[in-house]
């Protein structure tokens, strides 16, 4: 039997079914679906603008930033991080300390926050990224706890009481951008930009390298990818996203304390990434909104709301183990060009 079988031509794709499920999938896969989502976020204050609802919505958006950052580390690159909340702490404490010490608007601390989160990413990533799977998870878990305990025992971080009275996000003349409605819209725009940047990053050359490392690190290294450098970049980008969330967090609450950075918070962010669909930024946004908003919607259950919350999560993971909106398992098929056709037919140029 001849072994010179032509495998360059892929079999013709099966005709698409015009079912309700296919239509829904087509709607969700539309690349412009982010615009309606942004429109809904911008309209929400016209529907409900109470202090409580604005607080919940702003907190949910900050949680979306955290999930987007962790998705870079876990979803794109496959690095299990159980201490991601530490980067939120680094960003929030840096913003709080500098703005209060020098009486600066929180926005002006952004360069320092980026530098500190990059250093934090290098500090934890450089010595540990040669570890894999469970060992890396244990180290990152320790990093998260060390960060919280350190903040709990330092004078500059305010100890167990934390930092209170953090200045406004920014004041322009008589206009204070810290007002709840204005700050909500600022958060919407920042979050939209960060989510879009994370999504574009996932489709870039670096993003493809992350996915190769996630699928098979040894094969990726054999193909010439510097896996250590690629993984370190994933950690640094994830840390920067955590720093942005820290700035918004410190400005939103005007207070930072160690109790805000428990391991439970890292677990919830990781849960949002898994529930939404690892590697797919659209699914991660949905997962983050579900994890952050569902406990508020279940307040009628009083002390049983977290029990109901947990049961619902288990039900979702049983019937939808791949997440709400998982990433595609393969690259989209490339259309055959004239050059490809010539190569397939065995003709030389």
Characteristics of this structure?
349 residues, mainly alpha, two-stranded antiparallel ribbon, 14 helices, disordered N terminus
How helical, in percent, are the residues?
Answer: 55-70%
**Radius of gyration from the alpha-carbon trace, in angstroms:** 23 Å
Number of helices: 14
Main pleated sheet: 2 strands, antiparallel
Count of extended strands: 4
What's the order of the H and E elements? HHHHHHEEEHHHHEHHHH
Commentary on this structure:
It is a single chain. This protein is mainly alpha-helical. It contains 14 helices and 4 strands. Strands 1-4 form a two-stranded antiparallel sheet. The protein has a two-stranded antiparallel sheet with strand order 2-3. A hairpin with a 2-residue loop joins β2 and β3. α2 packs antiparallel against α7, α3 crosses α11 and α4 runs parallel beside α6. It is globular, with a radius of gyration of 23 Å. The protein starts with 19 loop residues before the first helix and ends in a 5-residue tail after the last helix.
Secondary structure layout plus pairing:
Layout: H1 20-29, H2 34-47, H3 51-76, H4 85-101, H5 110-128, H6 133-153, E1 163-164, E2 171-172, E3 175-176, H7 180-203, H8 205-215, H9 217-222, H10 227-253, E4 255-256, H11 263-276, H12 281-297, H13 305-319, H14 338-344
Antiparallel strand pairs: 1-4, 2-3
Helix pairs in contact: 2-7, 3-7, 3-10, 3-11, 3-12, 4-5, 4-6, 4-10, 5-10, 7-8, 8-10, 11-12
